[in-house]
Write a structure and sequence with these properties.
With about 350 residues, the protein is mainly alpha-helical. The chain is built from 13 helices and four strands. It starts with 9 loop residues before the first helix and ends in a 13-residue tail after the last strand.
C-alpha cells in the first residue's frame, strides 16, 4: 500500500522535507504580539515547577551516539529502508519545524515566561533534529536544515491553533515513541536501527513540551470552551487521522518492529486521549466501529489519490478528484461523530507513566 518515493540523494531528501500535502509536517508563523500578551499567573506554581525541570535539563547528555551505535546499523531490504528513511525525513521536518517556530517566538516576545519557555523548547527541538540528521548522514542523505528553513512554505496559525496542534503533536509523539520503545524493549531482536534505543528519554522531552502548552491553555480557559471546542475537536481529528493515514503508507516499517499499523495506532490514540483529559474537556471515541470504519475509508481514499497521481492524464486527475471528495466527506462525518465529555482535573500536570 506504500506510495512512498525512494530517497536516493540529498536533493530528493530536501524536496521530500519541503513537500506540502495534508499529511506532511508544516512550518508555521503566528501572531507574536498575541503570544507576548499571554498570562500564565493562574497556573504559576505548576508553571514554575515545569520551568525548573527545563533548567535542570535531564537530557543534556542524551543526544550523543555511544560506541555501539554505528555497529548496530543493519543493512535493510529496500522496501523497509525506503519507509524508514521517509520516517526519518518527516520526523526531522517536524522537529525542525518546532525549533524554527519556537525560536521566532523567543526572539519576538518580551514576556519573560514565554521567552524562557521558548528558549528551552528551541534547545530541545534543535537537539532532536540534529540527532535525526546524524542518522540520515549514515545513508548520505542529511537534510540541509538552513536551506529547508529558507525555502519551505510557511503557514500562518493563530496562537490558539498553535496551542491545540502543538500540544497534540507533542503528546502523540510521546505516545508513539514510548509504544515503539516498549515493544523493542521486549523484543530487542526487532530493533533494526539503534536510534530506537534513544526513544524513552527522548519522548519524555515531547511529554514535557506538551505539558507546557497544557498549562498555557488551562491558564486561559476561554480557549477550552464555547466555539473553541469545535477547534479542539477539529485538531484532535486532524492529528489522529493524519497519523493513521501516514502509518498505513508505511506498513513494512511497523511490521519490522512486530507492530500492526491498526493495533499500534489505536494504542497510541488510547494513550493520547487519556493524557489529553488534563486539558481538553472532550476526547474522540476512537473505539467506536463507525469511527474506525471512517479512518479506514480515509486510508483507501489516500491510496486511490496516490494511484491517480501515478496514472496521470485526465483519468488520473479525475481519480484524484474523486478520492479527494471521498476523503473530505469522510472527514466531515468523523468530525460529527459523537465525542466523550468529562470535567477537567484540578491538577493539570500528569506524569509520563506509560
Amino acid at each position: 500500500m506504500s506510495a512512498i518515493e525512494a530517497l536516493d540523494n540529498p536533493d530528493q531528501v530536501l524536496q521530500r522535507a519541503k513537500t506540502e500535502n495534508l499529511i506532511s509536517p508544516r512550518f508555521y508563523t503566528t501572531d507574536y504580539a498575541a503570544m507576548d500578551r499571554l498570562d500564565i499567573s493562574a497556573v504559576r506554581a505548576e508553571w514554575d515547577a515545569m520551568l525548573a525541570e527545563y533548567e535542570g535539563d535531564n537530557n543534556h547528555d542524551h543526544f550523543k551516539r555511544d560506541e555501539n551505535f554505528a555497529a548496530e546499523i543493519r543493512t535493510l531490504e529496500p522496501a523497509l529502508q525506503k519507509e524508514f528513511l521517509d520516517f526519518l525525513v518527516t520526523s526531522i521536518t517536524s522537529e525542525f519545524s518546532g525549533c524554527v517556530l519556537y525560536n521566532e517566538i523567543r526572539k519576538k516576545v518580551d514576556n519573560p515566561d514565554i521567552k524562557k519557555l521558548m528558549t528551552y523548547l528551541t534547545r530541545d527541538e534543535s537537539r532532536h533534529a540534529g540527532f535525526i540528521n546524524q542518522s540520515l548522514k549514515d545513508y548520505g542523505l542529511a537534510v540541509d536544515l538552513q536551506k529547508l528553513k529558507a525555502t519551505k512554505a510557511y503557514t500562518f496559525f493563530k496562537p490558539k491553533y498553535i496551542f491545540y496542534a502543538t500540544y497534540l503533536s507533542e503528546k502523540i509523539g510521546y505516545a508513539r515513541y514510548i509504544t515503539i520503545f516498549r515493544q523493542l524493549e521486549k523484543h530487542p531482536e526487532l530493533r533494526f536501527h539503534p536510534i530506537f534505543r534513544w526513544f524513552e528519554r527522548w519522548c519524555n522531552d515531547e511529554f514535557r513540551h506538551g505539558e507546557s502548552f497544557a498549562l498555557i491553555m488551562r491558564a486561559n480557559p476561554h480557549l477550552l470552551r464555547g466555539m473553541n471546542l469545535l477547534w479542539v475537536r477539529f485538531f484532535l481529528l486532524a492529528v489522529y487521522a493524519t497519523m493513521f493515514v501516514r502509518d498505513h503508507t508505511r506498513p513494512m516499517l511497523h511490521r519490522a518492529m512486530g507492530l500492526e499499523p491498526d493495533d499500534f495506532d489505536y494504542r497510541v490514540f488510547e494513550i493520547t486521549s487519556e493524557i489529553s483529559r488534563q486539558v481538553f474537556p472532550l476526547t474522540l471515541d476512537t473505539d467506536a466501529p463507525a469511527f474506525r470504519a471512517g479512518l479506514d475509508r480515509l486510508v483507501r481514499a489516500r491510496v486511490r489519490f496516490d494511484a491517480g497521481r501515478e496514472r496521470g492524464g485526465l483519468r488520473g486527475r479525475l481519480q484524484q478528484a474523486g478520492a479527494a471528495v471521498t476523503g473530505a466527506v469522510t472527514f466531515v462525518r468523523l468530525f460529527l461523530h459523537p465525542v466523550k465529555r468529562h470535567d477537567l482535573p484540578a491538577q493539570i500536570r500528569v506524569a509520563p507513566v506509560w
